[in-house]
């Protein structure tokens, strides 16, 4: 069953070291204030206008108290004023109100963080894909790990099917973080006014799509936050943000891609053509996460199909999932997470890092850039040009995969292959023959056999339970 589409804003973790992490309040900045600076009293307009909603102008002050939470009337005032502010910034009218519910972190985990009724094929496919990325081993369920991440760091979401927003209160008393609300209200405008239900049959397609949708919402909520305490008053929401817990940092890096690189993608078009140029992107959305990370490649460097024919024997069959592409494609977001994760993985007593934090974190030398924390175009990943990952299953439940990644040049392919060999070594692999590696049982949670080949600008990775079974999964040409 396909998981219902929701647009969520997630908390930013400041990942500055190789072990400890510090939760930030949210992926936006607000300055608490109790009165709008020089806001003039104005009568309600005769008709609905931009910058006014439900009796409130965008720069009105509110007489609300957040220490004991927001009661129903206070919540309505905050929501209406926030709608007026999003209208003022984006230039689009809310023709109808948006339902906004506020829930606790515990309620969100219990009622919303799950992925629904996942099919056996989806579980098998995702388990193999996240194992291929060296993010989730055979000892864990990848969908459950993703659900746990959502429960720990989502701040709010918009459901297009229900036209409803759910905000996770950052404190025990039910309060609203205004820029989180503004972010989700922007999603309501997107789905009401644009063709924002863009197909996303692979992880890379999802990151590309979300790079536009989340990028625009994040770009707007940054403008919203910049005005708090300067041009208008913002309600203080209290401390909080992410809910802690067992957060998987590798999956976090992969799925934070739209919030990190999406705003810059949107801003590059806004600078040239204003909001109309951003709106036009919905008619021709980015084709890959690479185009979001490098806007100059938008409509100039379409991803290729690095053909990977089925060369398995009769023991192995391809796994496909209804509603998805029959193959996996993780793109620059997934590949960066794969190579970056060892810098934060703590179960292995190994000081090596395939990519040290300085290589994939955007810093000013001392602190992380909170508006664009991750660099998804490191040398080992820059030059991505398309991929196909086929997942295989045997009747006894064993899984395997064949994965081909195309690169812009042969040197790009070799650079990635070198980084991948370092990744194999990190997880305990030993080279058996030329291009063939084996992670012994008990060495790490990724004990398997691997064959890595480089042919021009193509890198092909084959995985099987044992070295002897590699040819059964994908026979060399």
UniProtKB/TrEMBL annotation:
InterPro entries for this protein: Hvo_1808-like
Lineage top rank: taxon: Archaea
Protein name, entry field: Hvo_1808 family surface protein
Biased composition (Low complexity): 22-38
Signal peptide: none
Species whose genome carries this gene: Halobacterium litoreum
Region (Disordered): 22-50, 288-320
């Amino acid at each position: 069953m396909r998981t219902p589409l929701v647009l969520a804003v997630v908390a930013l973790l400041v990942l500055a070291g190789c072990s400890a992490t510090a939760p930030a309040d949210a992926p936006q900045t607000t300055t608490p204030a109790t009165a709008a600076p020089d806001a003039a009293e104005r009568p309600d307009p005769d008709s609905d206008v931009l910058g006014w909603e439900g009796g409130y102008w965008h720069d009105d002050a509110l007489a609300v108290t957040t220490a004991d939470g927001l009661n129903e009337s206070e919540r309505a005032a905050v929501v209406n004023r926030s709608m007026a502010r999003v209208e003022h910034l984006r230039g689009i009218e809310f023709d109808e109100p948006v339902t906004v519910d506020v829930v606790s972190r515990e309620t969100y985990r219990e009622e919303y963080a799950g992925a629904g009724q996942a099919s056996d094929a989806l579980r098998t496919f995702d388990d193999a894909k996240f194992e291929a990325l060296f993010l989730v081993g055979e000892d864990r369920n990848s969908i459950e790990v993703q659900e746990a991440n959502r429960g720990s760091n989502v701040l709010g979401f918009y459901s297009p099917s229900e036209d409803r927003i759910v905000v996770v209160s950052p404190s025990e008393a039910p309060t609203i973080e205004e820029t989180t609300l503004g972010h989700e209200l922007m999603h309501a405008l997107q789905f009401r006014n644009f063709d924002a239900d863009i197909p996303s049959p692979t992880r890379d397609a999802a990151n590309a799509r979300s790079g536009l949708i989340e990028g625009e919402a994040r770009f707007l909520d940054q403008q919203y936050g910049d005005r708090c305490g300067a041009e208008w008053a913002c309600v203080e929401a209290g401390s909080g943000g992410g809910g802690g817990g067992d957060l998987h940092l590798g999956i976090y890096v992969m799925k934070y891609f739209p919030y990190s690189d999406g705003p810059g993608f949107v801003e590059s078009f806004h600078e040239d053509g204003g909001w109309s140029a951003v709106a036009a992107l919905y008619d021709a959305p980015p084709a890959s996460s690479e185009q979001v990370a490098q806007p100059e490649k938008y409509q100039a460097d379409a991803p290729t199909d690095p053909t990977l024919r089925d060369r398995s024997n009769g023991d192995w069959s391809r796994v496909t999932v209804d509603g998805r592409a029959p193959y996996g494609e993780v793109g620059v977001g997934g590949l960066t997470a794969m190579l970056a994760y060892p810098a934060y993985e703590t179960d292995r007593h190994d000081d090596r890092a395939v990519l040290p934090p300085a290589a994939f974190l955007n810093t000013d030398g001392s602190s992380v850039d909170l508006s664009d924390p991750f660099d998804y175009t490191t040398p080992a990943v820059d030059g991505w040009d398309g991929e196909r990952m086929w997942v295989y299953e045997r009747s006894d439940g064993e899984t395997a995969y064949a994965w081909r990644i195309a690169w812009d040049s042969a040197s790009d392919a070799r650079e990635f292959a070198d980084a991948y060999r370092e990744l194999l070594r990190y997880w305990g692999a030993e080279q058996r023959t030329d291009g063939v590696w084996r992670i012994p049982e008990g060495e790490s949670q990724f004990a398997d056999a691997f064959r890595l080949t480089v042919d021009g600008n193509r890198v092909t990775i084959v995985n099987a339970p044992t070295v002897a079974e590699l040819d059964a999964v994908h026979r060399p040409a």
